[in-house]
Amino acid sequence: MKAKKFVEKLMNAVFFFCGILAVGCVLLITVYMVASGLPAIREIGLGKFLFGQVWASTAKEPRFGILPFILTSVYGTAGATLLGVPVGLLTAVFLSKVAPKKLADRVRPAVDLLAGIPSVVYGLIGVSVLVPFIAKVFGLPKGTSLLAAMLVLSVMILPSIISVSETALRAVPPEYEEASLALGATPTETIFKVSIPAAKSGIAAGVVLGIGRAIGEAMAVMMVAGNVANMPALFDSVTFLTTAISKEMSYSSGLQRQALFSIALILFLFIMVINVVLNVALKGGKKGEK
Amino acid sequence: MKKIVSLGIVLSLAAALLAGCGGTDSSSGGAASGSAAAPTQAPASALSGSVGTNGSTSMEKVIGSLSEAFMSQNGDVKVTYDPTGSGTGIQAVVDGTTDIGLSSRALKDEEKANGLKETIVALDGIAIIVNKDNPVEDLTLEQIAGLATGAITNWSEVGGSDAEVVMEGREAGSGTRDGFESIVGVSDECKYANESTSTGAVIANVASNPNAIGYASLSAVDDTVKAITVEGVAASEETVLDGSYKIQRPFVFVTKEADALSAEAQAFFDFATGTAANDIITGAGAVPVAK
After folding, report:
1. Percentage of chain B with pLDDT > 90?
2. Does some domain include residue B6?
3. Same structural domain, B195 and B238
4. Taking the CB of residue A166, how many other CB atoms lie within 10 A of it?
5. Euclidean distance between CA atoms B112 and B86, whole angstroms
6. Which among A132, A141, A252 has CB closest to B163?
7. CA dihedral in degrees (A204, A210, A211, A217; nearest 10)?
8. Are residues B161 and B73 part of one domain?
9. Which of the residue ranges B19-28, B187-196, B232-241 would you say has the lowest mean pLDDT?
10. Which of A64, A144, A213, A249 is in Cβ range 3.0-4.6 Å of A226 for a Cys bridge?
11. Any chain A CB within 8 A of the CB of B150?
12. pLDDT tens digits, residue range A174-197?
C-alpha cells in the first residue's frame, strides 16, 4: 500500500516536472530573446531599425534597416495565404462533405504526408523545378524571387489549413445541413451558406496556423528567394525575416550579430501575435458551439 | 497500396536529398578534412598558456583549422581568435592587446614604419566563374567590377551573347565576398541577383544558369562551371603564387618588429608558417606559401 502511494507521488512529480519543462523553455527563450535582442535596437534606434530601407550590415558605415525583411515576410505570407487558403478550404470541403468515403480515405493520408515532408525537400524541389519554371514562363534571367517563395509557402501551409478546417467542417451538426437541404437549398448552397459559416472559427484557426508556419519558415524560403536585401517585388530576389537571420549568422560579429538577434526578437513578436490571434479564434469557436 | 506508392515517392525524394547534400558538402567541408589530416609534426614540448590572435574575419577558416590542429598537438595551449577585421587586428598588435594580428591585406608603409612586421601565411585566390555555356573566356578587372556593380547589365557588352547578367554572390560577412569586393574595388556596391550562404551554392547556381557570373574560393571550383581567365591569366595555385593572377590577396600575420613573441605564440607562429601546415591551409581554401 505504501509503495503504491510512493509511486503515485513520484509519478505526480514526474508529470509536474514535464509540465514545467515546457513552460520553462518558453520563458527561457522569451527572456533570452528580449535580453539579446534589445541592445542592438537601442544602439541603432527603434525607428531606424524598423523603418530603415537599407540593410548593409558589413559596409564601412553599416546600416541596419529591416523594413525590407518585414515587408517581404508580410507580403510573402499574405501571398501564400491568398493562394493556399482557397485550395486548402475547398480540399477540406471535398474531404468532409463531397468525396465518397473511400476516396477521402485515400486523399487524407496524402495530405498528412504533405505535412510530414521536411521543409528542405520543399526547397529542393522549389529550386530545381519551380525556379527554372518561373524564369522560363516569365522570361526572367533568373527565377529566384518572392513569387517562388510564395508558391512554395502556399503548398507548405496546405496541410494545416486542410486538416484543421476538415475537423471543423465535420463537427458541424448534421441537423443544420439537413435543415438547409430540406428547405430546398442545393448541396453547394448548403456548403457555402451553412457548413462553412458554422465552421468559420475552426477554419480561421487553420488559416492562422498556416500563417504561423509560413512566417516562421526559413529553409525552403532560403533556397528559392534569392536572399538579397531588396524591398519586396514579385520578381526580385528578396530576404525574409527568417532568412535574414540564418544567412548571416555564421560569419557575423559585433553589432551585426546583435542586430540579427534583434530581427529574431521582431520575428518572435510576430509569432506571439499570431498565437494570440489563434487562441482568440479557438475561444470564439467554443463560444459559437454553445 | 496508395500509401506504399506515396511512401516510395517520399523515399526516393529522401535519396535525392541525400545525394544533393553530398554534392554541396564536399566543397564546404574542406576545412574539417584538412585539419583531420594535420598531425604530421612531432608533438611539441610541454607548452602551456594561451595565444591571442585578432583581426581579419576572412581568415577565420584558415586560423580556425590551424589553431585546431595546433591545439590537438599542444593540449595545454589555447589559441583564441577575435574576428574583428584587419584594421582592428593590426591596431591590437600596436597596443599589445594580442599576440598575433591577422590582416587580409599587406601592411601599409606607415604601419611598417610603426614597428610592425608582416609574414605572409597564405594567399587567398578567388576564381571568377561563369556557366559552361557562356562564350566569354576572359575579363579585365574593370569589366568584372562593371558586371558586379550593375554598370554592365548585358553579356554582349563584354563579348558574350545578348542576355542579362545574373550576378551570384555570398552573404554579407562572408570572407570570400569581402575578398572579391575589396580586390576588385567594389566594396558595398555590388548588385547581386542571388546571395547564397555557401561556396557550393554559388557554384551550383552558376552551373544551372547560363547567364550567371559568380566568384568562389579557388580550391572549391570544380568542372561544373567555367573559371574564366582574368586579364589573360587563368586562376591556379601557380599563378596565385607568382602573383600574375590578379584576384588574390595575402593572409598576413602581423607582429612587432622589436618584441619577441611568447614561447607558445612563437610555436604557433612557426607551426602556421611551416610546411607542415600546407595541407591545413589548402583544406581551408587558401594557397599555402611555405616551401
Report:
1. 49
2. no
3. yes
4. 26
5. 15
6. A141
7. 170
8. no
9. B19-28
10. A144
11. no
12. 999 999 999 999 999 999 999 999
Tell if the CB–CB gap between B172 and A58 is shorter than 8 Å. yes
Alpha carbons B127 and A157: distance in angstroms, whole number: 40
pLDDT in tens, B98-135: 999 999 888 888 888 888 999 999 998 999 999 999 99
- List the single residue in B with minimal CA-CA distance to A106: B2
- CA A271 – CA A277 distance, rounded (Å): 10
Query: Do B55 and B103 meet the contact criterion of CB atoms below 8 Å apart?
Result: yes
Question: Which chain A residues are closer than 8 Å to B172 by Cβ?
Answer: 56-58, 248, 256
B9 within a domain of the structure (yes/no): no
Label residue B26 by pLDDT band (50, 70, 90): very low
pLDDT band of residue B3 (cuts 50, 70, 90) is: low
Selected residues 69-88 of chain B with any CB under 8 Å from a CB in chain A? 83-84
Of A118, A246, A251, the CB nearest to B173: A251
State the residue for C-alpha cell 562564350.
B135
For A237, the closest of B173, B188, B194 (CB atoms) is: B194
Residue count (chain B): 291
Domain that holds residue B135: 124-248
Whether residue A103 lies within 8 A of chain B, CB to CB, comes out as no
The string of pLDDT tens digits covering residues A120-140 is: 999 999 999 999 999 999 999
CATH code where residue B112 lies: 3.40.190.10
Whether B115 and B143 share a structural domain? no
Q: Which of B197, B203, B213 to mutate to test the interface with A (most CBs of A within 10 A)?
A: B197
Name the burial class of residue B251, with classes exposed (0-12), middle (13-18) and buried (19+) by CB atoms within 10 angstroms of its CB. Answer: buried
Q: Considering Cα of A47, then A53, then A57, then A63, what sign does the dihedral take?
A: negative
- Considering the domain architecture, whether residues B129 and B205 belong to the same structural domain is answered as yes
Task: Read off the amino acid at residue B252.
Answer: V
CB-based contact B274:B280 (threshold 8 Å): no
| CB contact residues (below 8 A), chain B span 152-171, against chain A | 163-166, 171
Q: Where are the domains of chain A?
A: 66-251+267-289
Q: What CATH number does the domain located at A66-251+267-289 have?
A: 1.10.3720.10
B194 shares a domain with B56: no
Taking an 8 Å cut-off on Cβ atoms, the answer to whether B2 and A106 are in contact is: yes
All residues of chain B having their beta carbon less than 8 Å from the beta carbon of residue A125 are 13
- Looking at the structure of chain B, the number of domains it has is 2
Q: Do B195 and A247 touch (CB under 8 A)?
A: yes
B166 and A113 in contact by Cβ < 8 A? no
